[in-house]
Amino acid sequence: MAELSVDQLLALDRRGEARCLAEADGLRVLEAAGHRWLDGGGGAVQAVMDLADPARPCLAATRHLLAALLWQPRPNRVLNLGVGGGCIERFVAATLPTARCQSVDASAAALRLATTWFGLPPGEQVHGRAEAVLAVAGEPCDLIVCDLFEGDRHAACVADPVFQTNLAARLAPAGVVALNLSPRRETDLTTLLVALRRHLPWVILCTSEGCGNVGVLASRQPPAPARIAERAAVLSTATRSDFVALAGRFTALPPPPTEEIE
Length: 262
Fold this sequence. Notes:
By secondary structure, this protein is an alpha/beta fold. It is built from nine helices and 14 strands. The protein has two domains: 6-50, no CATH class; 60-260, 3-Layer(aba) Sandwich (Rossmann fold), CATH 3.40.50.150. The strands form three sheets. An eight-stranded mixed β-sheet has the order 7-6-5-8-11-13-12-14, with helices on both faces. A hairpin with a 2-residue loop joins strand 9 and strand 10. The model has no long low-confidence stretch (mean pLDDT 92).
């Protein structure tokens, strides 16, 4: 199945070539050209599923998040903040069948649509705000995915110091956090990273041509470039997605001075 960009999906909708399967609370499930996607309005495509290969990550922003598996390849406990169309859950179920995944979304409609139309795998689903979930002590997670958006920008809570403190507290010692960010200005990204690195000093930035979002991977443990390259080759073969090229675009930031790490 040919890869379709977000712009191409939006064009299919504008031309009336996409069939609307369901809608609720401003969300629409659309289908065309062998793909099904969750449209949030205003040009925001929240998730895309290849009907012939549902586990394959179709969006660059999703691949940025899943690149965390090149750093932490065998997470036992996964926490996904912001379910969307269940892309993370389908990928985890297909490639890491023994991993336990908790899915959190503030929208009950999104959870229903993901279950009905996007094959959200059985697991622990929580209808609630990510901030509230992190504020309560829970089992440490090896991988935390944070894909929280308000319109076309990442949610304000992601930059909140309390949220970042709780996020780091929920992470296992060797765990990795993956964030999908869409900052308005470069200074917004810089400010967020400075605060995040007080808790998780090792950071990798992921970018892709044609994708305005930035993936941020963060951990207490330094990455091993040689192992990342090896894992990228394996994951690329297993998933028909080019994680090798993505890993080649990684930008690893030097850790901050020790006195700045909490």
